[in-house]
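Summary for the funding panel

The consortium committed to producing paired sequence-structure records for every protein in the target list. Below we show the first two records in order, beginning with the earlier of the two.
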Amino acid sequence: MADPSGVVHPQELAASIAASRQGVRNFPRAQLRKLLPKLDEIGKNDDHGATLQKLMAYAASIEAAAHVAMAAGEWDATMIFFDAIDTVGHHFMQFRPPRMAHVSDREVRLYGDVMDRVYEWHDEALGRLLDRAGADTTVLLLSDHGFHSGANRPNLKGLPPERRMELESSWHRPYGVLVASGPGVVPGALCGPCSVLDLTPTSLALLGAAMGEDMDGRVLREILEPSVATTRVPSWDHIEGDAGQHPADLQQDPFEATAAIQQLVDLGYLAALPEDARSQIDLVSRESRFNLAVVHMSGQRYAQAIPLFAALVAEQPSIARYGMCLVQCQNGNGAHADAVASARELLSKDPRSQEYRLLLAHSLALAGDIPSSLRESALMEKAAMDKPEFAASLAALAMVQGRYDEAVKHAGRVAATDPAQHSGAPRTGACRTGARPFRRSRRTCARRIGDHPGDPRSTPSIGCGTCLVRRSAERTTKHGHRPAVRPRCAGEPSLRCAAVRGSERS
């Protein structure tokens, strides 16, 4: 049936989109058994089968709707968002080998290969969509983050629902995937440092449209053919056109609507919302503001992010990531004294937190109080020496403190613990650049470039090392293609510090 709510654009596709939806109850049993071979062994009180059925019915509906839209007529761009790998991962990645401590042998046997099969389903769906699009279509395949599948998987079992929702993001690895192919893309080209903010400007360039000067991202020129032009307009926000959005008179701010309902409750015209509903609304509101603040932080607009994080800390001081992001932004904005004060406040509430102590040590070092920073880091290093997950952060801290030999040791632990983790060798090279064995720095990062030529974080240190052994021409010609690196967050300045230090000494 047609959708009267206006959520489908153009409206004439509403009936076809509605008909293409895959209902949960009639999701093919054979397809579910392909994803979950031991489906018949699941007990009646175990809802994992029903959860997988619901999530994959939704994924099948997304694919079906995409085919309907693409078959309806000529199109310039089609954007499809599959979230099932993420959502299924939050339920089933815990069962994938190697077995986590809280997972039973039975659960591994029943659910251990579900994630691999879900990936295979998405591969097949991608193949069908590529066949539909045709060989003359430019394709961008991307993921905005990765997903932990090994030793860094979190154990959230037994947590209350609200606390679990707050910690679900700990499943995410920071690095995603970007693959580009088709007309306008240079075959075999490697992409420099990039983020999801670069996808809109790059897509606009491939479509022959201008990027907005108010966009935070850049056009990924290094992967595009010279024939793909780059033009600019001040802002697309002020250009009239049909973008498929609701008319202005129908657009609503859901949080303003919630506030209006609460006002009616306060006046006695409506019954109060149930406590669980109220807490869920508050959580969604906080997370929306948190995401906005993270966008500002990612774009290095620390002054805009700080009041948002500060308000979140005031509302929920027990949520660690709010306070940690606040300290990172204060440091990024140069307000190191404020960062020290915020870090001390966090540590006073949880003196056993190694993350808070690390933040305090880092903030003290950036504020110039190296002795106090060393005292805090000594306590931190003693407690975290057997925790490899802190090695990268300790290497960054030692760099800021000027303890380059210690930084090299910690960076080496990163590479030794997880050879596949990209940050090990670049950090080692950066630390050696600071410690002055510049030729070793060049060799370390050059080896990393050979193993992972698409990893941009080796190039700042190899450039510094090259410059400092008096090969400035080589730095310019061989590695001069590297775009400026935007630090991921203010709390990890090691590569930036190495580059600045190298330029000062040259």
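The next record, for a separate protein in the list, is shown here:
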Amino acid sequence: MVQIIAYEKLTNSDGEEFNVLVLAGGLEMIKSRSSGRYYATRKESTVSCTMTKDQCK
């Protein structure tokens, strides 16, 4: 399941501000190649959006 965990305000090269949503997936168990042991991890990504600060909250 993907969840929105945060938002950030960034500025592009033209000086315009925009918001991005920080998304996170569910917990995964990954096996280490070197030790063979398992560890828990999750993936995160950002997606730009046109929503206002209040809408992002």
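Regarding this second record: The beta strands are 3-11, 17-24, 28-31, 38-41, 44-49. The chain is about 5% helix and 55% strand.
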